[in-house]
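ARCHIVE CARD
CATEGORY: sequence design from structure
SOURCE FIELD: tokenized fold
FIELD CONTENT:
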């Protein structure tokens, strides 16, 4: 458990350090790309709640 906590802390620290030298435009582009990925992951596939059920 402690190793996992250290790993998560280090990955977050490196993510913050990576963002420091980026311009605001670069950050905006990355945020838009991540939002696009999240939106795509939540897209219906036709087999969720909206699909008709067969009984």
């Amino acid at each position: 458990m402690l190793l996992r906590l250290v790993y998560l802390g280090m990955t977050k620290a490196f993510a913050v350090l990576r963002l420091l030298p980026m311009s605001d435009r670069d950050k905006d582009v990355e945020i838009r790309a991540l939002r696009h990925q999240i939106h795509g992951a939540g897209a219906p596939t036709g087999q969720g709640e909206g699909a008709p059920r067969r009984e």
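CARD ANNOTATION: Residues 24 and 37 are 20 Å apart (CA to CA). The first helix runs from residue 2 to 19.
SHELF: design records, drawer C
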